[in-house]
Structures are given as C-alpha cells and as structure tokens.
Amino acid sequence: MGTPGLSTNENDTLFLIKPGELMLKGGNRPLFMRALRRNMRATLTGIPHKLDDRHCRIYLRTSRHDEEETARRLRRFIGISGFARPLACPRDLDAVEETAARVAGACIASEKGHIYKIHVHRADKNYPLDSYTIACEIGSRLGKRFPALQVRMKNPDWVLHIEIRDQAYCYAFAEEGERGLPVGVTGKGILLLSGGIDSPVAGYLMAKRGLKPDAVYFHSHPYTSPQARKKAETLAGLLSERTGRLDLYVVPFTSIQVKIRERAPAEETTLHSRACMMQIADLLARRKKANSLITGESLAQVASQTSQSIRYTGSFTSLPIFRPLIGMAKEDIIAIARKIGTFETSILPYEDCCGVFSPRHPLIKPKFETIRESFHRLDIEEDLTRALKEAEILRFEEGKRLPPDNDPER
Ligand code: ATP
Ligand code: MG
Fold it and tell me: Which of 135, 199, 241 is nearest to 352 (CA)?
C-alpha cells in the first residue's frame, strides 16, 4: 500500500521503483535498463507519465488520478523487485523531519499502529551523516511530535523508510514486484500454448527469464469446439498483460491429425502429433527469429511426457526447448496459474485437440529409432509447412486483441 493520503504535490504521485535482477548483471546493465524502460513505457500506454532513472532506481510520476491503475500495472510488471510511493524533499534534516512527520502522521491517522522503526538507506555515501545518526535524529524529533509513537526493532507495525539519494525519499509501505529479467533481453521464444493449465504458466516463467514469447495454438476444428480455441485466445491475452505485445498463431491441425490417425498405429498417434507440433513451432521460430521453444511439459505428467517420449518429440527441433515446469508438482503449477489469473480460463471444460485424438493406450516408452522410422512413413512434412502458412495470426496487447487493421506486417 502507498502511504495513504499523501503525494509530493497535490496532483502527482511519485513511484520509486527498484529494478530486479538486472542490477547484478555488470556490463549488461545499461542494456537491461533500456529494455526495462521501454517495457515500462509500453505497459503504461494510455497513462500520462514521466520516467527517469538515476543510480539504480526508476522514478515514475503520474497524476494522482492514475495512481491506482499505475500501481495495478506495476504489480504485474516483470523485472522489478518492488516499488514504493514516497514523498520527496530536500536532504537537510529539517526537511526530512517535516516529510517523515507527514508519513508518520498519515500512518497514525489510518490506524496502522504506533509501534514503528526507522530504516535509513544512504544511497549517496557522500552525505555527511551516516544512516545510524540520521535514524536517531529523526526518531528523536518524531518522538517529540508524536508522543504515542514507540520505536521497536522487532515486529514493528510499520517501518519508516528514509532513502538519501539526490533528494530524500520517505515512505512507510513498499510493494513487492514480479522480479525476474526485463522481458525481451534474452530474446524471443515460441510458446506452444494449449488451452490447459500448464503452458501459460510456462510462458510466464520464461518471460521472467527475459524471453519474449509469441505463441502457437494447434486447432483441430471441428473436432474441438470454438470455445477450446477461445480459451487459447483468452490465455494469450492474459499473458500479454505481462509480456507485452504477443502474437498468437492459430494453426489448423485437423488434416495432420487425421493423416496421423490413418497412417500410424493407434498407440503412437499422440506422440506423432506432438512431434508435428514441435516441428511446426520450430518453423515458426525460424520465421520469427526466435531462439527457443517453450512448452508446459512436466516429467511423467502424461504418456507423452516421459523421458523417452520427450526425447522423441524434442528431436524435431534443434533449438533449445525450455520446459520450466519439468520438475514441478502439479499443485505448485496450479498455485502460479491462480496467481497470474489464468487458472479459471484453463479449467473451462473444453477439450483441446489431443483429447479427441487420444488413443486408449498410448506408448509410454517409445523406442527412439523405431518411432522415428514410423514418423518417416507418415510422409507428412509438406502438410506441416502448409499448416503454418495457413495459420491465422492474432495480436494481443495489454490483455486486448488488437483490431486486424492495426496489425502491421508480421
Ligand atoms: P497443458 O496444461 O499446457 O495443456 P498438459 O499437461 O495438458 O499441458 P499435454 O496436453 O501433453 O500436457 O501438452 C504438453 C505441452 O504441449 C503443453 O504444455 C503445450 O506446451 C503443448 N501443447 C499441447 N497441446 C497443444 C495445442 N493444441 N496447441 C499448442 N500447444 C500444445
Ligand atoms: Mg493439455
């Protein structure tokens, strides 16, 4: 929560933002900082604002009218470790006292409690007083102004933060950010996005490692309903609130599924269809200059996710396949899906394409050479290229589908 009822001037709110991991990245830091600024501007589309960065912090000003919407967008913004809404003032002790008293007064007025402590961060080491001296001095002055206040180091009701930078910044509450790397700094990945629980979570986790996802959904119309496809679209929109602009390729997959069903033994069909998905995603990655594929696979969750199956399906691309859920328990994946708001959509009861074409007894431990030969006999390569050519491309940004006439060349 921000300090209630306070701002630096009547109409403005200042956000003091702490970047995430990029602070550890040495020589790459300016590059990462640029990406962070660019992403932040994109996320703030529609909100008039001013953005600066100095000495490892981002300073964002918006009007008070936009304060809550800005905070909402920052909460889901990838690449920052947290943010506060401080009051800024000159650095002399009298000014700091005055400002600290406003923060303390607001905390008391909003019944946050009377037990507090002061935490001083002296980012400018040339400041003549050290942190301890500042804390003692301000603490004693606040004690005189607010006799009911008590200092306690352990479990205080609230913490008065004082940061000495180009100015002094005072605040009592900070919010945690999403952390991770700015989306895009590690390149682009193609996310195989089904309508299920796992793949959106996988896309989100890789976005936190700096990969900017575009997504591909394989649609088996009319075997799967328009609602199944709608799920993938909704999920792509939800992801775009965190990853920035995202293209969803809806690839017609029915004729491929049918061919597999006609030409391969029933127990192999799921594996071949996964293999085809992988190869189409690989073709798309090359077209989009993506450096990797992303899937929601989790070891042994289903037959097509045993190590033997993964070896086979993974052999249809030479790009790295990122499977961030590979070692995760389903409950933990669900917890993330709930947090990022995709769970409710993912559990809607419409089957994705593979449910319809699933064999009763799928192969669990395919023999690599044998199943590779079996794939070869499908004679399906051309179908894969054609399917990608026929893909429909939908573009999402900030949770919304962009109208087709706004879609530039892709
Ligand atoms: P999810 O919950 O993501 O659907 P799952 O546990 O149902 O995963 P599978 O259905 O075996 O597992 O799919 C494994 C992965 O393959 C998915 O996480 C996704 O990355 C990809 N995938 C499966 N079906 C599709 C599809 N129709 N379109 C795009 N990708 C798909
Ligand atoms: Mg699935």
Answer: 199
* pLDDT over threshold 80, residue 308: yes
276 CB neighbour count, 10 Å cutoff: 26
CA atoms within 13 A on the CB side of 341: 11
Closest-lying ligand to the alpha carbon of 347?
A: 1
Tokens of 231: 């799920």
Does residue 276 fall inside a structural domain? yes
Six-digit token string for 375: 């794939």
Global confidence as pTM: 0.92
Of the residues 176, 200, 226, the one at which a domain ends: 176
CATH number of the structural domain spanning residue 60: 3.30.2130.30
User: Is the CB of residue 216 less than 8 Å from the CB of residue 358?
Assistant: no
Ligand whose nearest atom lies closest to the CA of 202: 1
In this structure, which residue's CA is closest to atom 4 in ligand 1? Answer: 196
Q: From the alpha carbon of 232, which atom of ligand 1 is closest?
A: 28
Contact 184, 39 (CB under 8 A): yes
79/67 Cα distance (integer angstroms): 20
Domains of the chain: total: 2
Round to whole Å and give the CA distance between 186 and 181.
Answer: 8
For residues 356 and 264, the answer to whether their CB atoms sit within 8 Å is: no
Stretch (H or E) spanning 284: helix 269-287
Please indicate whether residue 382 or residue 404 has the higher confidence score (pLDDT).
382
| Chain segment 85-120, per-residue pLDDT in tens | 999 999 999 999 999 999 999 999 999 999 999 999
Mean pLDDT of all residues in the chain? 92
Residue nearest atom 9 in ligand 1 by C-alpha distance: 297
CATH code for position 318: 3.40.50.620
CB half-sphere exposure, 145, CA atoms < 13 A: 16
Contact 224/257 with Cβ under 8 angstroms?
no
Does residue 182 form part of some domain? no
